[in-house]
Amino acid sequence: MQISLFYLVATLALGLNASAKKTNGTCICSNRALERCLIARSVPFKVRCDSDWEDYSRTHNLRLPVTPAAIVVPDNSRHVSAAVVCAGRSGVKVQAKSGGHSYGSYSSGGIDGQVMIDLRNFNETVLSGNGTNIAIVGGGVRLGPMATAIYEQGNRAISHGICPSVGIGGHSTHGGWGFTSRAWGLTLDHIVAMQVVLANGTVTRASPDVNPDLYWAMRGAADSIGIAISISLKTQAAPQEVLTFIYEFQTILESVPKSVSALMGIQGYMSNSTAVDRRLSLLVQTTVNPDPASGTVSKSLVVAGIFMGSLAEFSSHIEPELLRRVPDAPTARDVQSHNWIDSLARQSPDGTLDGAPESLDFFGNSATIDSPGLTEAAATSYFSYMLDGPAPPVGFESSMELWGGADGQIGLAAKNASFAAFPHRDVFWTAHNRAQAAPDVPFPDEGVAFLNGLRDAIVETLDVPTGAYPNLLDTSLTREEAHALYYGDEVLERLRRVKAVYDPRNIFWNPQSI
């Protein structure tokens, strides 16, 4: 990248102004060695006395605010490299922020006093024009703008999650599930190469042919290994028609047996290879909201998903069989046909693909449930806890997100522990539990214990392996517990060996890192 004279003058001026601002007695960087190093190398950064500090330091999870020693805002790989070197020389750890959606605020360092490298200026998405249909995506690009760019540039698509403000960096390097994952695999499976900044400041390539160990480790544990400033992703031809469907059931949750019957019926249907293929995907979400004023609790169950096919096929074959296995008729039905990009907007929480960041006060956890899925006993334990168990101290939602089932492409045999540092392949469901405080009400400590009880209710009666999904990280886990659930012994051992080669001083650190 060429750097203009104007840019050099502007950065030097920023460094000089920052120096004066940070030494005026009212606001200084908490690590003076770090500050001097960044200024000497003309690296743009923010500290607490900057007027826009709040915009840069605000975490996605308001329950877990973090105050970095400095927030580096690089414009190029040289800035990222210099910032990593400065942090290492100053005795502080580093984490990169792509979209900043870490459930534990780990992209801000996870604890106070670390260096956050904000990749917001690495925001370009370019679809190759050489016939390969590879999308080269900056490490700070958010999913919504990325999807829009590759669709507009070539009518292409990538498998990814439904929240447009999530950053591609963390999402793709720690899994990346979405409704199209059953058809195309995880976002991680689309990565063909990365440009990575290492702990010693080196900028290098990681691909199957160049630094293959680094390539393997970055696809599963990038937060512990390096900073992906550019990610090259294979793309798919965008489907011409995509059906989105949402069914709401108000009466099913009146009893545990009916709830169990609905979930097990859907699981059986999605396992039937004579009726289902990879084009269909869904989740089953239970929402529970207590009303402290009245003492009542509202509950609803939603089945939502997509079908990459025609409305005629869905209406005649898919919908009747899917609903036939649910004991009650839906109280609300919304089935719509879209082109690809409009289907993504429909799935988005705000109906757009703008990718504007958001902040919430919440706690979340997860459990991966291997094939063949839930037993009736596990489903009964799950719904008994939600419907007849302890009173919820806060509103929550619990989603059974479909990873497996007939013809699913996440768990192909070739995608084993040698393929990438992401072991969750033979997964049927991932349970995603999240509780959120009401606006201006602090999240109660009891909410964490309640959601952990819900997770335990799912896994304690299962007879298949379980783990946890690192993109839905659980801050209540110890480092050892997180490693066991996110990686397992085989992947963890190899990750430790790769970490020793590429980051022997443990520069890239967070409370659950390798």
TrEMBL record:
Entry keywords, A to Z: FAD, Flavoprotein, Oxidoreductase, Signal
Molecular function as annotated in GO: FAD binding; oxidoreductase activity
Domain FAD-binding PCMH-type: from-to ranges: 64-238
UniProt keyword Flavoprotein present: yes
Entry-linked SUPFAM superfamilies: FAD-binding/transporter-associated domain-like
Cofactor(s) needed by this chain: FAD
Gene3D superfamilies: 3.30.465.10, 3.40.462.20
Signal sequence residues: 1-25
Family membership: Belongs to the oxygen-dependent FAD-linked oxidoreductase family.
PANTHER family registered for this protein in UniProt: BINDING OXIDOREDUCTASE, PUTATIVE (AFU_ORTHOLOGUE AFUA_1G17690)-RELATED, FAD-BINDING PCMH-TYPE DOMAIN-CONTAINING PROTEIN
Protein name: FAD-binding PCMH-type domain-containing protein
Organism: Chaetomium fimeti
